[in-house]
Amino acid sequence: MLTITGASLIGGHEICGGTGFKAFDPMKCVILEPTFHNATKEEVDTACQLAASAAVAYRQLPRERRAVFLETIADLLEQETDIIVTRAMQETALPQGRLTGEMGRTTGQLRMFARIARAGDVWACKTDEALPDRKPMARPELKQCKVPVGPVAVFCASNFPLAFSVAGGDTASALAAGCPVVCRAHPAHPGTAELVARCICKAVEKCSMPKGVFSLVGGEAYDVGTWLVEHPAIQSVAFTGSCQGGTALAAIGARRATPIPVFAEMGSINPVFLMQDALKNRGADLGAAFVASLTAGTGQFCTNPGLVIALEGAGTEAFIAAAVSALSAQDEGVMLTRGMADSYRKKVGELGAKEGVELLAQSKGAGETTRAKGMFFRASYSTFMKNTCLHQEVFGPCSLLVTCSSFEEMLSLARHLEGQLTVTFQMDAEDMSSAQALLPIIEDKAGRILVNGWPTGVEVCSAMVHGGPFPATTDGRFTSVGGDAIDRFLRPVCYQNFPVELLPADLRP
Amino acid sequence: MLTITGASLIGGHEICGGTGFKAFDPMKCVILEPTFHNATKEEVDTACQLAASAAVAYRQLPRERRAVFLETIADLLEQETDIIVTRAMQETALPQGRLTGEMGRTTGQLRMFARIARAGDVWACKTDEALPDRKPMARPELKQCKVPVGPVAVFCASNFPLAFSVAGGDTASALAAGCPVVCRAHPAHPGTAELVARCICKAVEKCSMPKGVFSLVGGEAYDVGTWLVEHPAIQSVAFTGSCQGGTALAAIGARRATPIPVFAEMGSINPVFLMQDALKNRGADLGAAFVASLTAGTGQFCTNPGLVIALEGAGTEAFIAAAVSALSAQDEGVMLTRGMADSYRKKVGELGAKEGVELLAQSKGAGETTRAKGMFFRASYSTFMKNTCLHQEVFGPCSLLVTCSSFEEMLSLARHLEGQLTVTFQMDAEDMSSAQALLPIIEDKAGRILVNGWPTGVEVCSAMVHGGPFPATTDGRFTSVGGDAIDRFLRPVCYQNFPVELLPADLRP
Question: Which residues of chain A neighbour B261 with C-beta distances below 8 Å?
Answer without folding.
Answer: 475, 477
